[in-house]
Amino acid sequence: MKCPNCKKIPKNSKFCKYCRYQLKVGKKSKGNKLRIFMISVSCCLIVVVSIGSFLFYQYWNSPDQKNPARIDLGKL
């Protein structure tokens, strides 16, 4: 690794030990990318399940649909 201002420095250094220039650490760990991917997939899954549950509830309680599982207690 080389400091843009002065000399060659050890790998994974955050600062140049000669001029104190702050170096950028460019690599992200593979585990961090996997974590972000899993969180994204989980959020999408939660949204899909929520929308599906809402639509099923709307269909099940719709007065227009003749639902054989619904029991009308007023006619008993």
Structural classification: mainly alpha
Query: Can you tell me the residue ranges where pLDDT is under 50 for at least 5 consecutive residues?
Result: none
Gross geometry:
rod-shaped
Average pLDDT:
77
Proportion of residues in extended strands: under 5%
Please write the string of helix (H) and strand (E) elements. H
Q: Give the proportion of residues in helices.
A: 40-55%
Distance between the termini: 84 Å
Main sheet properties:
none
Radius of gyration: 30 Å
- Based on DSSP secondary structure assignment, what is the total number of beta strands? 0
How many DSSP H or I helices?
1
Overview of the structural elements:
41% of the residues lie in helices and 0% in strands. The protein contains one helix and no strands. It is mostly helical and 76 residues long. The chain has one helix at residues 30-60. The mean pLDDT is 77.
List the helices and strands and how they pair.
Layout: H1 30-60
List keywords for this structure.
single chain, mainly alpha, 1 helix
Summarize the structure.
This protein has about 80 residues and is mainly alpha-helical. It has one helix spanning about 30-60.
